[in-house]
Write a structure and sequence with these properties.
This protein has 17 helices and 23 strands. It is α/β, with parallel strands linked by helices. The strands form four sheets. An eight-stranded mixed sheet has the order 6-5-4-3-2-1-22-23. Strands 7-8-9-10-11-20-21 form a seven-stranded mixed sheet, covered by helices on one side. It starts with a strand and ends with a helix.
């Protein structure tokens, strides 16, 4: 008998979560997420899956975030006909998030095609359409927490609250008769694990005693200082007061689900208690607006110490759903708050607000979540002096601030405690959903102390392991890899090209006169001609 796992995403990167399990009786996926970050990675979204969608029997979905769910419409449109098992909270969120993702892809591809036509380049098609996303919702089937559900013959799964997001889950999977002495082979897929200090979600839960654990490692090399919800509000208050003193906009790129709602609850509470100046809070994201309604509907399952309904109905809060309403924000001067998706600044309305405010010294950009390598948010966080947005160079003059307190991910100490609580782990732990430094940091932290170093594995994209052996066995790598391992982790030529253009513009601006600019141009031309 054989049980294999193929790491089809979120291997040495934080996006594209997708794991394929094969047994003698069928095939199923855990997650089917969208790749984000550098263009080389995002191009995987347009290519063929490393499996035939029609051969997949079932999908187990950990939660609704697009890096875990975002390719499900493509999977369905290309032949998958089985059920997608998810919690009710996840299904409610996906019913808005997936159509929104399809709509964004359609609008962004339309804008790209207008530029392509002007440049004489071929037109492109979206990964999937809004109609594809709506059609995929018929495949969703609800599961209850802590209740066994059949996956394929001989395999069952049970969902445990991961404390990351409304409806999020770690998934316990049992393969009948595949473990030692004919016992079930037991595996736990962590999904994304929530931190200790969070406003709306409970602490993560899961049982102990597994053959295998797959653990996320987003913040595997980062330790946060211990913080209480009150301390978090005070740190946010300090940032708001500084932004108000600058008399410009406070622009917050926020993940539309959970982070946005937590920020709104804290901002409104601070304004209501007079701890920060009152100002309009614009929620400029149709998806976040709909997700906020989902949170109202699920208020009973959230922290009972927080009056979610009252705070999310505040008169300070303004919903700007239409494009015209969004554009009207640009007419405002003085202090106001804009919360817009996407959280990594890679798509959506946040880019328009950044184009307006990044270049203004009285503007403040507050980053509140993880910024993946190759994203606009990461370049801003890393101190770029200029960035390119929709082909236009934008000089960075605004105050760039970061607070980690609203992250939905556990830090390295919290992850190591979560892993320790899953012991004994008999055969191995796979560290996934993290960039290389994060995976290396978490591995070093747990090696020998929590798990023997020999039982820690760091798979790369498209690796296949046999799980029915006494230790996970990496199978022959003759199967085709979609990307070389180094291409997954490194910034690509698109990033290098953007940086080169920005550097050339800097040199031209710094040149003393037109003669000096001519010298720069001649040197560049000679360098280009030398390559021919």
């Amino acid at each position: 008998m054989s049980v294999t796992i193929q790491f089809c995403g979120a291997a040495r990167t934080v996006t594209g979560s997708c794991y394929l399990f094969r047994t003698q009786t069928g095939r199923f996926l855990v997650d089917c997420g969208l790749f984000q970050g550098q263009k080389t990675l995002k191009e995987l979204n347009y290519g063929a899956f490393p499996f035939a969608p029609a051969d997949i029997d079932t999908v187990l979905l950990t939660h609704a975030h697009i890096d875990h769910s975002g390719l499900l419409p493509k999977l369905v449109s290309e032949g998958f006909g089985g059920p997608i098992l998810a919690t009710r909270g996840t299904i409610d969120l996906c019913s808005y998030m997936l159509p929104d993702a399809g709509s964004i892809q359609e609008s962004e591809v339309a804008a790209l095609n207008r530029r392509n036509i002007a440049r004489g380049r071929p037109e492109v098609s979206p990964i999937y359409t809004q109609a594809d996303a709506i059609a995929s919702l018929d495949a969703f089937r609800p599961v209850e927490y802590e209740t066994w559900a059949d996956v394929i013959p001989g395999v069952r799964a049970r969902y445990w609250n991961a404390g990351h997001l409304l409806g999020s889950a770690s998934i316990e999977i049992e393969f009948a008769g595949e473990g030692a002495g004919g016992k079930p082979l037991r595996l736990l897929a962590s999904g994304d694990i929530g931190p200790d200090a969070k406003l709306l979600q409970p602490d993560p839960e899961a049982p102990a005693g597994f053959d295998y654990v797959m653990s996320e490692s987003t913040y595997g090399n980062r330790a946060r200082a211990p913080i209480t919800p009150q301390q978090r509000r005070q740190r946010l208050a300090a940032e708001v007061r500084d932004a108000a003193a600058a008399r410009g906009a406070l622009v917050i790129p926020a993940f539309a689900v959970e982070r946005t709602q937590e920020l709104i609850v804290d901002l409104v509470d601070l304004m209501d208690h007079g701890e920060v100046p009152t100002a309009p809070i614009f929620l400029d994201s149709p998806l976040a607006i709909r997700a906020t309604e989902v949170f109202r509907n699920h208020a009973a399952s959230l922290d009972q110490g927080v009056d979610v309904n009252r705070l999310l109905s505040s008169p300070h809060l303004r919903f700007t759903e239409t494009v015209d309403e969004s554009k009207s924000i640009a007419r405002l001067n003085g202090f106001h708050v804009i919360i817009a998706a996407s959280g990594m600044c890679d798509a959506g309305r946040i880019r328009h607000h950044l184009k307006r405010w990044l270049c203004k010294s009285n503007g403040t950009v507050l980053l509140v979540g993880f910024q993946a390598q190759g994203t606009l948010g990461r370049f801003i966080a890393d101190g770029a002096k200029a960035v390119r947005i929709q082909g236009e160079e934008i000089r960075v003059a605004a105050r760039i601030r970061q607070i980690d307190d609203y992250s939905g991910h556990a830090d390295n100490a919290e992850l190591s405690r979560w892993i320790a609580a899953r012991r004994p782990i008999q055969r191995g732990i796979f560290l996934v959903h993290g960039e290389e430094p994060a995976i290396a940091g978490l591995s070093e932290l747990i090696s020998g102390r929590i798990v023997p170093g020999a039982k820690i594995f760091q798979p790369v994209l498209d690796d296949i392991y046999e799980l029915s052996t006494s230790a996970p066995t990496l199978l022959d790598g003759t199967h085709r890899r979609r990307l070389a391992p180094e291409a997954v982790v490194a910034l690509d030529w698109h990033n290098d090209m953007s940086k080169l253009i920005l550097d050339i513009n800097d040199q031209m601006r710094a040149a003393a006169d037109d003669r000096a600019r001519g010298v720069i141009i001649r040197r560049l031309r000679r360098a280009l001609e030398a390559d021919h």
